[in-house]
Amino acid sequence: MWLDIRLSQNTLILLGSRNESAGSVLHGVVHLNLKRETCIDFVSLKLKGKAETFWPSAFVANPLANYERQNLVLYTWDLLPAKDGPFTLPPGEHQYPFEFVFNGFLPESVQIKNGQVKYKLVAALGRGLLKPNLICERELKVCRFAQPSVFNTTYPIVDTWENMLDYTIFISHQVISLFDSLSVFLTFLPKNPEVRVKGITFELMENLTLRQTKSGKSQVDTRWYTLNSKLEETRFSYSRSYAVTFPPTEKIHFDCSTELIEISHKLQARVTFSAGKTVNAIVIKVPLSIMAASLETMSENPPRYDQIPLPASCHSELLPVHFSDPLPPPYH
Question: Which residues, including other chains, have CB under 8 Å from residue 233's CB and lie 6 or more apart?
């Protein structure tokens, strides 16, 4: 006897931000395979979603307050209701389809050092008072992609530094995936003939915020990632387009916004220039949203359907089924 949960997609995709997404429909089937005629009490399935944080003991004086959980979704299917049982099933394979309309406002899956957003499906088969229930558990990965119009948004900043240097910066996308290249357009016009642009560097700022809803406290962890590229050549005026790429994806997380966990990013361009014997620097920060994949990436590598391998039989303990596509990396 084995129990299995199969999904039509390896990953549930939400299109658009939490405020604009229409949601998505989760489709799947609970499979039950019996070698002989069997009497069972019930078959049920639960969808559970939660956000949870684990606060460092140095930040929270009371150890009992270190952990906080927010339940996001809880839904139960009575595939064979207990009130109508017991049921005598013949040998062979039995299938129980299910579907669930996933609210677009729900957050995507996140895995960080001190918290996570996680969804899972738990199927249960009741075998009577003298036998333990048969349980099978499967993790559900939820990703969020941007709308096509958002990817084509250009974000301009025009300003003047100390009445000495006019500058303009454009980025090709306000929302981008870690696998795409970001085009950055920079234009400088010195107002003083002594001003010389000496170099430009790009960095990504990642802010991870943990919140406690009861106390109202929050903790912000900021990380910096060096991007390409650097300009060493000195010029009086300067205009150029950069193709900016991200460091290895295991270091960077996707944007996320919940009551307990928030992850946000900014692109920083640092421009150093000389004015006579003095060297100065301008720091320009542009908000940037990072999602799991762009629509271009998704069209080239669409989610796989009905390709979930059949796991070994589930016995009387929880047997998690791991996805081939990993969750966002742990935050170290």
Answer: none
